[in-house]
Amino acid sequence: MENLLKKLDLTSLRLFVAVCQERNIARAAEREFIASSAVSRRIAEIEALIGLPVIQRGSRGITVTPVGETVLRYALAIIGNIEQMSAELSRFSAGVKGRVRVVANLSSIVQFLPEDVAAFGRAFPDVSIELEEENSADVLRIVDEHGADFGICNPVAGSEAFEQLPYRQDRLAVLVPGGHRLAEAARVSFDDLSHDSFVGLRSESALTRLLAQQASSASRQLDVRMRVSSLDALCRMVHAGLGIAIVPEPVGLLYVNTLDVRLLPLADAWAERHLIIIFKAREQLSASAAALVSFLGNQP
């Protein structure tokens, strides 16, 4: 029996299924456009591999033995799986050309999407991608209104209503001016920053809401000196000494060697964040969108 995997081929299984369904070797051969002798030879090879008869021949056709019924059940499952795989791969094949609309939050665009979209483009050069930046709440709204094929955002209120896949995760860190009192600290907690003034992102961003939520949980209010619309501007404001900022760690690392700032790991558990891919329903995705979703969902 250990030789079955190596010696039992799909053609033999397909012909065996045809014989079982037609209950006649000649009709099965006609259906499969092959000689009856070739069908008989394939059946004999299956029986030789198993060591037991799978059919019994009679004047009115064939009957399937109990062993044959077992083989038939598995053969149908194997052939069905192959057909499903073919159908799924056809979606990818059909998706090599097309247009995909993606709406994503700032964190995913700044940190991950440029490289991931470029890698996808090398595999699918004829798929054009329209990428729009919005805050996480608006990502949900736009996808719900069919304004984009899918979205990428942080898990926020309402995201549970969508089908979703994990995309990436990041960790928040504290960016401080070079002369800040904590500039040489190995790591800090949110409580260590209770007396500092902050530079923040616009009020509707997921990061702003997260910080406001954590401040509220600690019964304090953030002293936000100013708000800007981009992480680049946020880092430059810290460099100018206008306050400190909490930013995704990979973003802060881009500036530690070019600006007079220090990046300090944030020790709080909530500093580890997750990004998700959301969409209305997988079966509603176009072939191109499904290909991109699968590609992004398989990133490390």
TrEMBL record:
PANTHER family linked to this entry: HTH-TYPE TRANSCRIPTIONAL REGULATOR YBHD, LYSR FAMILY TRANSCRIPTIONAL REGULATOR
Organism (species): Paraburkholderia monticola
Record CDD domains: PBP2_LTTR_like_1
GO CC term (a single one): cytosol
Keyword vocabulary terms for this entry: DNA-binding, Transcription, Transcription regulation
Molecular function (Gene Ontology), one example: DNA-binding transcription factor activity
Keyword flag S-adenosyl-L-methionine: no
Domain HTH lysR-type: 8-65
InterPro entries reported in the protein's UniProt record: HTH-type_LysR_regulators (IPR050950), LysR_HTH_N (IPR000847), LysR_subst-bd (IPR005119), WH-like_DNA-bd_sf (IPR036388), WH_DNA-bd_sf (IPR036390)
Pfam hit, one: LysR_substrate
Listed name of the protein: LysR family transcriptional regulator
Family named by the database record: Belongs to the LysR transcriptional regulatory family.
UniProt keyword Cytoplasm, yes or no: no
Domain of life: Bacteria
